[in-house]
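// run 5 | inverse folding | seed 20
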């Protein structure tokens, strides 16, 4: 069993929350293209615009993190300690805590969760691969696809360093440091007290350090998926970075579109509208 967990940024941090929700629905369509039906989906947001069949929605009445008009870029100094980056990680990490609490009630602690960004696409055989590798504690998406505008793409290795849709891990491993008993009224303040600040922001709230933390430092059993397993969707401006990727030299093939169930939508960088 794999539980896919998606946290959606606060509606006050979106250019257009309707666009954010449409991107989410495309991601849900991609997940529901799995060749193995042994999976669940949890979506955590601050406002549910529409239901989606078979999805467990968690709606949290929390304040938006302060990120202003800041954008991640190569010129950003000391990204890891940037105040606004930490605010993003805190928001994502606390939402992941709430999703993990729900996942523990839905399934067994020795089952997997996969953290998925709410605009990306995943390969149809991700759940199948995970369910066939139950000996592993963690599974990594090391190879993936970066999607630019006009259905163009490029392959990327070290995918877990650039995209949040990259980590699959046993619930008992990721949830062990969390004191869920503190969370009685579903407030963000309670969640902040339930887990160490570093673990909340750098493990639960960030994708870059999770594999290194569990597999390299704590010597859990790690496995890499042997095929490009996720698509990092940089074709729109609803990412936290606000940046729309360039046109790449290769066009998605029909097979790739089918394997990931990709529904391409370009959000205009200026107007925030679809075409």
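// decoded
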């Amino acid at each position: 069993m794999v539980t896919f967990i998606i946290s959606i940024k606060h509606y006050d941090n979106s250019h257009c929350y309707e666009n954010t929700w449409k991107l989410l629905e495309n991601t849900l369509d991609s997940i529901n293209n799995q060749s193995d039906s042994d999976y669940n989906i949890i979506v955590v947001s601050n406002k549910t615009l529409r239901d989606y069949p078979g999805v467990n929605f968690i709606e949290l009445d929390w304040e938006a993190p302060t990120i202003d008009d800041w954008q991640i870029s190569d010129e950003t100094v000391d990204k890891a300690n940037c105040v606004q980056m930490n605010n993003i990680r805190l928001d994502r990490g606390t939402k992941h805590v709430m999703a993990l609490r729900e996942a523990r009630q839905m399934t067994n602690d020795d089952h997997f969760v996969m953290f998925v960004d709410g605009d990306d696409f995943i390969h149809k055989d991700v759940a199948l691969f995970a369910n066939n590798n139950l000996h592993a504690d963690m599974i990594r998406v090391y190879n993936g696809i970066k999607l630019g505008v006009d259905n163009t793409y490029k392959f990327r290795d070290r995918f877990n360093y650039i995209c949040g849709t990259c980590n699959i891990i046993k619930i008992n491993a990721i949830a062990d440091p969390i004191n869920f008993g503190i969370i009685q009224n579903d407030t963000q303040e309670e969640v902040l007290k339930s887990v160490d600040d570093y673990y909340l922001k750098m493990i639960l709230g960030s994708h870059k350090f999770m594999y290194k933390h569990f597999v390299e430092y704590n010597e859990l059993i790690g496995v890499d998926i042997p095929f490009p397993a996720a698509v990092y969707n940089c074709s729109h401006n609803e990412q936290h970075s606000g940046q729309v990727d360039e046109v790449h030299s290769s066009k998605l093939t029909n097979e790739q579109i089918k394997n990931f169930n990709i529904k391409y939508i370009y959000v205009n960088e200026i107007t925030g509208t679809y075409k």
